[in-house]
Amino acid sequence: MDENEGSxxxxxxxxxxxxxxxxxxxxxxxxxxxxxxxEKTALNLHLEYFNTSSTLIIRNLIKDLTEIKEKxxxxxxxxxxxxxxxxxxxxxxxxxLFSDITFNVTPVDSFY
Length: 112
What we know:
Helices cover 38% and strands 31% of the residues. The protein starts with 6 loop residues before the first strand and ends with a strand. It has a single domain (7-108), classed as 2-Layer Sandwich (Transcription Regulator spoIIAA). The longest helix is centred in the first third of the chain and has 15 residues, at 19-33. By secondary structure, it is of the alpha/beta class.
């Protein structure tokens, strides 16, 4: 997370045993960031896989950021490997859930 640039990125595979504990530092940083966000805020998600318990964390993270959309130009960028239909569908579902913000679902050749 780069507060000055307004950039938040989550990359890789999210399968923590205790997602609340694992993501707490990021959620706390976002809570602090919400008081004085950058002019533009981008949440960039490059996920190869996430488990069910991570779904709630990701949803809450996006929800928390939508609460500051009047203070910052908010965009969520959901990247998925172009042959990964499951991750594409997950991105589309989140996009429908958060239809009141700019939410891009973008294929990439590969994360590596």
